[in-house]
Amino acid sequence: MLKQRSCLSLVSILFMVWAVLAYAETASSTEPAYRLAVVNLGQLLNEAPQSLTETKRLEALFSKRESELAQEKLQLDNSLQALQVERETTPATEFLQRERELRTKQRDYLRKLEDFREEVSSARNDSLQKVQDLIDRAVEEVRARDNIDIVFRESHYVAASQRVNMTQEVLTYLQQQFEAGQVKDTSSNSAASPTPTKPAKEEE
Questions:
Q1: 59-101: pLDDT as tens digits
Q2: Alpha-carbon dihedral of residues 92, 94, 100, 105, nearest 10 degrees?
Q3: What is d(CA 137, CA 164) in angstroms, rounded to the nearest whole number?
Q4: Which residue in 178, 179, 167 sits closest to 139, CA to CA?
């Protein structure tokens, strides 16, 4: 009885091995029912023309105020340093008055600096979210166009071949969208600007 059970177990194991090998052979000879791809979102954020444009826009928006604050800080530092140098030759009452005035200016400067940093941070976050939304839509458009079922970002896989890397395709798509937007903006500006007309000649 025991010998019969052993024979049955051996047959079952051999059948399972055969089934696995048969499945592996079939799977290797047919195309998978789904397509996978990977994308490097960090690279897209750094290289997409929309991202570079937003960076330049923020620099133009805040560079003047940043320079003004830097100049104000330099003047305050110079004034405080000069006051310390003149401490021995300045009457105590005058020294305290000037010191209080400089400390008040310093507090005002720090408040303006904090407000500026908060404004810059908020603008950068809004800009980043705007670009990320554009990239997400571009990834989805390329995925649908190329009939890809699943897309993994760079933090969700260890390694991948270039064959399944769709980063360059998405970057090309973003470039095309950017150029199309530039052409549209140029056309809109041209339509909004009236065509100059030649002045009528005066009758002699």
A1: 999 999 999 999 999 999 999 999 888 888 889 898 899 999 9
A2: -140
A3: 19
A4: 167
Phi/psi of residue 198, nearest 5 degrees: -75, 140
Triad 185, 187, 190: Cα angle to 5°:
110
Which residue is associated with the tokens 């190329």? Answer: 146
- In sequence order, the 6+-apart residues with CB closer than 8 A to the CB of 42 are 154
3-state helix, strand, coil in the chain (%, to 5): 80, 5, 15
The token pair at 83 is 């006051």
Q: What does the alpha-carbon distance between residue 63 and residue 78 come to, in Å, rounded to a whole number?
A: 23
Q: Which two tokens stand for residue 3?
A: 């010998």
pLDDT digits (tens, 9 = 90+) for 1-53: 544 444 545 445 445 445 544 555 554 445 556 889 999 999 999 999 999 99
How far is Cα 108 from Cα 43, in angstroms, rounded to an integer?
A: 40
Q: How far is residue 92's CA from residue 88's CA, in Å, rounded to a whole number? A: 9
Contact 127, 45 (CB under 8 A): no
Coil, strand, or helix at residue 38?
strand
The DSSP code sequence of 128-194 is HHHHHHHHHHHHHHHHHHTT-SEEEEGGG-S---GGGB-HHHHHHHHHHHHHHHHHHHHHHHHHHSP
Report d(CA 201, CA 182) in Å as an integer.
38
First CA to last CA distance, the chain: 131
How many angstroms separate the CA atoms of 170 and 48, rounded? 9
Distance in angstroms (rounded) separating the CA atoms of residues 106 and 110: 6
